[in-house]
Specification:
With 119 residues, the protein is of the alpha+beta class. It contains 2 helices and 5 strands; from the N terminus they run E-E-H-E-H-E-E. A hairpin with a 2-residue loop joins strand 4 and strand 5.
């Protein structure tokens, strides 16, 4: 199997419901997003997917979150905007756009990350 990964960033505000601690208050993060694809074969050019095209698809999804207040978006009205749920949100939107999507990992800080691998 082959695997490729790209990274991108977005900045946004959120606050967590049903949570006691610092993250219950409105605050922001600079999230790092890592997307992994896997495939058992390569295209004619010898690639799983062109990095440039993969990055462009990811950018389309992240542009909807960037510099927003996540709790105000329709998706996060009832679902808590945790790193876990943000990873799932990005995964579900990318799934329809690219083949071989394996996982989405969302880094909330340099040392904390959550991943979603699909069903
Ligand atoms: Zn937070």
């Amino acid at each position: 199997m082959y695997s490729v990964k790209v990274e991108a960033n977005f900045s946004a505000a959120h606050n967590l419901r049903n949570y006691k601690g610092k993250c219950e208050s409105l605050h922001g993060h600079n999230w790092k997003v890592e997307v992994a694809l896997s495939s058992d074969k390569l295209d004619k050019a010898g690639m799983v997917m062109d990095f440039k095209k993969l990055k462009a698809q990811l950018k389309c999804v992240l542009d909807k979150l960037d510099h927003g207040y996540l709790n105000k978006g329709a998706y996060f009205k009832k679902i808590n905007p945790t790193s876990e749920n943000i990873a799932r949100y990005i995964y579900e939107r990318l799934k329809a756009r690219i083949k071989g999507l394996a996982s989405v990992t969302v880094w909330e800080s340099d040392t904390c990350a959550a991943s979603y691998y699909g069903e």
